[in-house]
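Q: Give me the 3D complex with iron/sulfur cluster.
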Amino acid sequence: MPTTTELADRIRAGGRVSAGEALHLYHHAPLPLLGELADGIRARKHPEGVVTYIIDRNVNYTNVCVARCNFCAFYRPVGSSEGYVLGFEEVFSKIDETIALGGGQLLLQGGHNPDLPIEWYEDLFRGVKQRYPGFKLHALSPPEVIHLTRMSKLSVTEVIDRLMAAGLDSIPGGGAEILVDRVRKLLNCYGKATADEWLGVMRDAHLKGLRTTATMMYGHVETVEERIEHMIRLREVQEETGGFTAFITWSYQPEHTELGGGEATGMEYLRMLALARIVLDNFPSLQASWVTQGGKVGQLSLAYGSNDMGSVMIEENVVRAAGAEYCMDEVEIVRNIENAGFVAKRRNMHYDILGDPYFRMQDVPRQLALATARADGDTSRPAELVNYAARSTTEKKLRATDQHGQ
Ligand code: SF4
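A: Here is the predicted complex, encoded as structure tokens.
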């Protein structure tokens, strides 16, 4: 095994590290050294001194989910009085609000709801594109795509083709957690997608020309070796396809989850982030996860390998359910970027620069709290749901009762 100094010299010269060498760095390299190496890679890849962000909105179209991952505080089982599905008109209103804040995209993800067949997604996507032709849909993480293959009896490529024909623009890298099946079994997320299935969806999407992101949620039941295995598997797919735009990592948020436990610290986050910048040498961008780590650690991320502050989000439901409630609007994100010594630029999902901060060109309202999927106590059911075949007994019974009552 090379020494830490030899590895550092190799990394400074643009060389690659193996899984074993990454593990050595995790255990033996001081955090400032990892930060210096990661910052050097960031500076080589982004020498212009720009840090980007995107104005988009995180919309969770349903919280009803049959997957029941034990680290998730967001989902509700089928039939729960707290379960919801957004109506198409609700989604359109959220898009109107996003456009008013300078946004051009939804990050659209949700639970594995057995009563939403692929036609529901197609109609929603087509409806969005008809009303807002230039608006982008960064939608449905690999496990949601797999869920649709099971519901529709179609292959992954057929599902992606149909979603693309309806308006899908790119795929978010959610649901990766740790791409090692031992860990996925312990998190009860092996059933929603195995490591190979998750990577397979991304490979297929890339081969069809879609760009995607990749994520990693660490700090629960995995070992450090397994975090590194996760990153190496992503690096291998990226070698094949070049389709990943960015990597985002965050620590497991334990509140209100079945799994419970504690949360990894800020130093651990910066160590993982810097290590990811070193290992994922073929990923163009690394995002800071301020929504889980808070604005201050989010800003520090810019010295540990990140070149992007992610999204202003506008709305957030998943991380909030697990106890983290940070909010940064565009003004605050730009303040953090500029205070760290970088030039702040808006981007799209492909990381094309769109321009200077929007709030400097247009008057936009300050956003002091992230919105939620729905107002508290709103239990309304979208009228269009009856147009789509129900699969769950609960939903079938509910519809029979509704009809009886009419
Ligand atoms: S993480 Fe996603 S798939 Fe897992 S239970 Fe939560 S909503 Fe369902």
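A quick observation: The pocket of iron/sulfur cluster is lined by residues 65, 67-69, 72, 74-75, 111-112, 143, 189, 192 (CB under 6 Å).
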